[in-house]
């Protein structure tokens, strides 16, 4: 009898151990934290300052935290809240109804396994595709960028296929926040997402051990219905973008080529025929030195462009910060852009990174302003960056940029007379520890 009881106990304990082991492998929970203050001296960032304008000196910060949950490979979930603020703008004592210190939802989604490599993600999510030229979470900006979307995607050893679908409403702008209003299905982007609907398909395939090809197709629907207009324009304009990205990489060198074409109609009801071409190479000059060269051409309008048509390429939801100069002057203007850039990086230790980049900007075409025709040369920009890793969750970074303007820059940006030298300095600290992690 004792032997029998011992056997039963052993079986139960073994089962409990197996259950505990399975449970440890099934559930995970973590709490991330990110705090990123950034000090800036702006003397021409984003746009040239005119003679007599004073520079700005400010500090902004971003605070993010939330939870990340996973159940084996069946379920993933992420809820991230964020607060973005400008030092001094919020009242020192927060009262009822104030918006100065408000916390918003940055990401909130669930990711479900459908079958093997096929999954779906539903909710507020970031979209990063390729080099983030057309779809990016825009991490440089303190607020970032997200989409309320449904994603269905598949991946295996060779293929990575992602699709995104979104349909937006703005009841605050048109229906006084009355969700039960049955009177219409119109959209206005005031204070909301810039588009009414979006369908995107992205495919990436590993061609060889050193090359990869990706293809993109996206359809964006724009609608701007004004509630104050007695006869509002309810037209939906659809803009299509199709193209691809080829990457070749064999240490210590790499190269890429990107090309995209746009057609359809933009939010201004203009008929679009535009394109973007970009190519670049990068590599290591020595153990601690790196270089890169790239050229970007974005089509634009010629002088006396027919009304209702445009050749201006839209970069959609991408980031221009790493491509078209860190002072973020471009892409801007109807004349298009040709950006030629060269960069040199130095990594003396594992904790220190230095980089300097130069840009020469030209308009895609000669352009006209107030009856005067201007040449293509838009000036030059130099960006210098420094990064120091204090530990696994703390990084200090800084940057200094200068832009040398000319009369063409003044005309394109409608700033006269502009300072001949615009500059910008920033210093940022990023602290991103993982506060908690558990498996159960």
Annotate the secondary structure layout:
Blueprint: H1 2-26, E1 27-43, E2 56-71, E3 75-86, E4 104-115, E5 118-125, E6 147-155, E7 159-167, H2 171-174, E8 197-208, E9 211-222, E10 237-250, E11 253-265, E12 271-284, E13 289-298, E14 309-310, E15 337-349, E16 352-362, E17 367-369, E18 372-374, E19 377-391, E20 394-404, H3 407-413, E21 421-431, E22 434-439
Parallel strand pairs: 12-14
Antiparallel strand pairs: 1-2, 1-21, 1-22, 2-3, 3-4, 4-5, 5-6, 6-7, 7-8, 8-9, 9-10, 10-11, 11-12, 12-13, 13-15, 15-16, 16-19, 17-18, 19-20, 20-21
Structure notes:
This protein has 440 residues and is mainly β. It has a single domain (10-439), classed as Porin. It contains three helices and 22 strands. It has helices at 2-26, 171-174, 407-413; strands at 27-43, 56-71, 75-86, 104-115, 118-125, 147-155, 159-167, 197-208, 211-222, 237-250, 253-265, 271-284, 289-298, 309-310, 337-349, 352-362, 367-369, 372-374, 377-391, 394-404, 421-431, 434-439. The strands form two sheets. It has an 18-stranded antiparallel β-barrel. The chain has a two-stranded antiparallel sheet with strand order 17-18. β6 and β7 form a beta hairpin. It is globular and about 70 Å long. The two termini are 36 Å apart. 24% of the residues are buried. The model is unreliable at 1-22 (pLDDT under 50).
């Amino acid at each position: 009898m004792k032997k029998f009881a011992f056997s039963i106990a052993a079986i139960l304990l073994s089962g409990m151990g197996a259950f505990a082991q399975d449970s440890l492998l099934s559930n995970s929970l973590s709490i991330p934290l990110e705090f990123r203050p950034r000090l800036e001296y702006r003397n021409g960032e984003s746009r040239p300052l005119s003679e007599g304008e004073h520079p700005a000196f400010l500090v902004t910060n971003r605070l993010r935290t939330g939870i990340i949950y996973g159940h084996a490979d069946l379920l993933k979930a992420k809820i991230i809240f964020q607060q973005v603020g400008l030092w001094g703008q919020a009242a020192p004592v927060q009262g009822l109804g104030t918006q100065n210190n408000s916390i918003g939802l940055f990401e909130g989604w669930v990711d479900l396994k459908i079958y093997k490599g096929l999954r779906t993600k539903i909710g507020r999510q970031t979209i990063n595709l390729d080099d983030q030229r057309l779809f990016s979470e825009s991490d440089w900006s303190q607020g970032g960028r997200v989409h309320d979307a449904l994603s269905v995607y598949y991946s295996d050893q060779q293929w990575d296929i992602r699709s995104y679908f979104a349909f937006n409403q703005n009841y605050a702008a048109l229906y006084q926040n009355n969700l039960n209003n049955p009177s219409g299905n119109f959209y206005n982007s005031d204070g909301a997402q810039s588009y009414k609907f979006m369908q995107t398909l992205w495919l990436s395939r590993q061609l060889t051990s050193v090359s990869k090809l990706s293809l993109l197709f996206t359809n964006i629907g724009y609608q701007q219905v004004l509630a104050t207009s007695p006869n509002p324009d309810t037209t939906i304009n659809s803009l299509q973008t199709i193209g691809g990205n080829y990457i070749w990489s064999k240490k210590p060198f790499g190269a890429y080529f990107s090309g995209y074409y746009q057609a359809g109609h933009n939010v201004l009801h203009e008929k679009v025929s535009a394109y973007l071409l970009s190519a670049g190479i990068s590599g290591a000059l020595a153990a601690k030195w790196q270089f890169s060269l790239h050229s970007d051409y974005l089509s634009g309008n010629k002088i006396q462009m027919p009304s209702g048509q445009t050749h201006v390429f839209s970069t959609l939801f991408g980031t221009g910060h790493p491509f078209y100069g860190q002072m973020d002057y471009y892409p801007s203007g109807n004349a298009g852009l040709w950006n030629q850039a060269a960069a040199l990086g130095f990594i003396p230790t594992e904790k220190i990174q230095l980089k300097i980049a130069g840009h020469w900007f030209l308009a895609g075409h000669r352009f006209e302003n107030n009856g005067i025709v201007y040449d293509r040369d838009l000036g030059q920009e130099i960006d210098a960056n420094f990064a120091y890793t204090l530990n696994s969750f703390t990084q200090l970074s800084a940057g200094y940029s200068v832009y040398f303007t000319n009369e063409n820059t003044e005309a394109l940006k409608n700033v006269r007379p502009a300072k001949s030298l615009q500059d910008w300095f920033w210093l940022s600290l990023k602290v991103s520890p993982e506060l908690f992690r558990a498996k159960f």
